[in-house]
Design goal:
alpha+beta; Pnp Oxidase, Chain A; seven-stranded antiparallel beta sheet
């Protein structure tokens, strides 16, 4: 049986502990900012005007997302496939979510807010990596931020080296795309990706 409303949902789950609501901040306190400074990886969630959601991983050396103040974040947009799905969504709907990870920590940091695409050179120069500035950045005005408990990562054993798969258990990127795209060549795709990862990471 599907759950169709909040009243039905609340019959499935016990009431949340008071601190679940009490911990939600409307700004980035010192602990949030320190977490972001330690984080080399976050997931950016966006949604377009039609309500279609998307989630995109963003990664760089720790501190690549800058907390300009207690209500403002700045994220670089590094080279990718140039589909710019997240950026197009933000132009249609500025509401975003961010989930920050720190390797070795089971807690995560959740941030919600509104984003805008920025191209001011002074801002982009402050996000250079290997001497290269990003083509654009995202400036996020923070509306909510809170530390999320570690149970999901504990259950997943995500940071446990013993949890890593034997890479032969799953096909290469090129092999997957060759199965999905008529006429695609797996070796050519894999070689092209390896070259891009060596030469065009930034």
């Amino acid at each position: 049986m599907a759950v169709n409303n909040i009243s039905e949902l609340r019959t499935v789950y016990r009431p949340p502990a008071p601190r679940a609501a009490q911990k939600v901040l409307d700004h980035l306190d010192v602990h949030c900012r320190n977490f972001i400074a330690l984080s080399p990886l976050c997931v950016l969630s966006t949604v377009n005007a039609d309500g279609q959601p998307d989630a995109s991983p963003r990664g760089d050396p720790p501190g690549f997302v800058q907390a300009l103040d207690e209500r403002t974040l700045l994220l670089p947009d590094r080279p990718g496939n140039n589909q710019v799905d997240s950026l197009q969504n933000i132009l249609e709907n500025p509401r975003v979510g961010l989930l920050f990870f720190v390797p070795g920590m089971n807690e995560t940091l959740r941030v919600k807010g509104r984003a805008e695409i920025v191209t001011e050179q002074a801002l982009l120069d402050g996000m250079k990596e290997r001497t290269r500035a990003p083509a654009s950045g995202l400036r996020v005005t923070v509306e909510e931020a809170f530390l999320h408990c570690g149970r999901a990562l504990l259950r997943s054993r995500a940071w446990d080296p013993a949890s890593q798969i034997d890479r032969s258990a799953y096909p290469t990127y090129g092999q997957v795309l060759a199965d999905q795209i008529a006429g695609a060549d797996a070796r050519e795709i894999d070689e092209s990706e390896e070259a891009a990862n060596r030469e065009r990471l930034y």
